[in-house]
Amino acid sequence: MKKLVLAALILVSAVAHAAFFDSGQGARPTGLGEAFVAVADDANAMYYNPAGMIQIKMISTTATYTGYMEGLSDSFAAIVVPVPGYGAIGISWLGLTAASSYSESTLKVAYAYPITKQYTVGLALKLLSKSYTLDSVASGNPFFSATSASGLGIDASFFGKLTDEIALGASIENINVPDINVGSSDPVPMNIRVGGRYKLDRSLLVALEGDLSGEDAKIKGGSEYWLDSGLLKELGVGNSELGFRGGVGYGNNSYLNVDLGFSFYLPSKIVDLRFDYSFTMPLMYIEGAGTHRFSICITEPRPAFNL
If you average pLDDT over residues 72-91, what whole number do you get? Predict the structure, then answer.
């Protein structure tokens, strides 16, 4: 019976939202308040704006673990491979589990193509799947006559680097509004992201983004600062760098989040490593239930993100 109750609760997974709800991924982007559509300069671009992959000059990978409330977590992994003269390709996987009774997965393949030196377009195809694990009580409920479903989603994106300091980004996700139907209609809403970023100097950037998904409208903003590596060298940690970031998101339906995060970047002759952490605190719902994210980014021995 306990599993039946949990299954009913998570039918609207990711905290009382529809399946495949956009909860954000990557500790660096979420530390920026999820204002990443116009930043998109590491492998997290696969989630926010595949067109931004054009900025990645070396093979880049990332993996993220997110812990929500008890029994609810997700994992995200992505790899981006630049193709000189032809753009970049990427593949990612996102999986969510809830109390061992419900799971979602998204397998995504994307391509970024430079239409000019300044402007890039991206196209992504993704396989969306979800399934339930039922106990003997739930299996007798006609609502659960089907326990799994899948469908294809289509995303399109844009990235424009107007100057060295200013960039714009846009992404339209689930253009075809796929219906991942298990017993009743459950369409995945179209999600639109539009934003810009401005680099004040080599180490400081600010970003702003607006999101629209179904009836949910949000505005998000964040800033990132990288500490001068010269100071860290004096502390005996070589060419490593520390990054700090913060962000905020506000929207309808009781959406108000505050985000904080940091990174430790460690270059080497073999691979470059970046360890990211972020903490998200919702201020208008689920009081006290903050979200922790941990990411690792691995690239060839050269930064794949623009400092």
Answer: 94
